[in-house]
Amino acid sequence: MEKAKIDFLKTTLSLYIDHTTVLAKLQQPNSEFVILDVRNAPAAIKKDQIKGAIAMPAKDLGSRLSELDHRKTYVVYDWTAGTTLGKVALLTLLSADFKAYELSCALEGWKGMHLPIEALSI
Amino acid sequence: MEKAKIDFLKTTLSLYIDHTTVLAKLQQPNSEFVILDVRNAPAAIKKDQIKGAIAMPAKDLGSRLSELDHRKTYVVYDWTAGTTLGKVALLTLLSADFKAYELSCALEGWKGMHLPIEALSI
Amino acid sequence: MEKAKIDFLKTTLSLYIDHTTVLAKLQQPNSEFVILDVRNAPAAIKKDQIKGAIAMPAKDLGSRLSELDHRKTYVVYDWTAGTTLGKVALLTLLSADFKAYELSCALEGWKGMHLPIEALSI
């Protein structure tokens, strides 16, 4: 059972990337990291987003994969860690052979740490 | 590893149903969907619930399975997505061969979307 | 698929321990249960903790395993259930053959239930 628990935890943790790592990766020259905001809400509801993120609603992701680049690594996030939307987006990306992670703690955690965000024009 | 991640995400997501799907299913005539409120708290603490839900505390579920119908599909929810109670209830239902899902984002998400709730008489 | 779901839920739930069980175990004479606060924040940010917890930041855990006792059972917690830090700590402990669980609902849930906490001296 311990082996099953350990494997389970390793796989769970392999899906996530934390904000510290994301910030460090983004600061490298020619960073291959790209943040995708996969929230389905319109800009008027979202109001702001992680600085530099690309809006790519989870509901559109499957039909917009041609806009993505297999040399990049994508970090997806939704409002909070409790939703399933980030996992839906991550599954779409991994199934299409993209390198991708879900942002640990989502937008809620990013804001809670007072990390860079930007207002959305409505 | 990607295969392990993809299988893991598919299984995770297969446990949940989102509020949009639940609402659509409930509006069908003779809907087979039934929402179970599995919170263990008394009505005075719960105060309200998802409209039309049946109170079926997780702690009692195992001894009340005879009240359920194998032709139905059950959607369980707890206060928030961060608790384990919904998973405990879901495990009980699936192990007894019922069709069941956990409501994605739980009651907290349902209220956050301003979906129909009803006050509980105390 | 139902078998996969059931196994998945069993493994998920096997990682957690709920506050009721923790409190009952701690009240036994010569309890083998020890609560580890694995938050990485300094005391000035944490401000308080679960009563009787030992501060063992997840970032230091790997290098401080010699301080732990294989006869004990460790319960780790982070700020909320949505973070991955508790799982990181749990993986470290289980991989080193310690008996360990993550506290269901984390510190947020413990405080929400008004269970015993204590202020941290700064």
From TrEMBL, chains A, B, C:
Rhodanese domain mapped to chain residues: 29-119
Alphabetized Pfam families for the sequence: Rhodanese
Signal peptide: none
UniProt-listed InterPro entries: Rhodanese-like_dom, Rhodanese-like_dom_sf
Protein name listed in UniProt: Rhodanese-like domain-containing protein
Species per Swiss-Prot/TrEMBL record: Lactiplantibacillus brownii
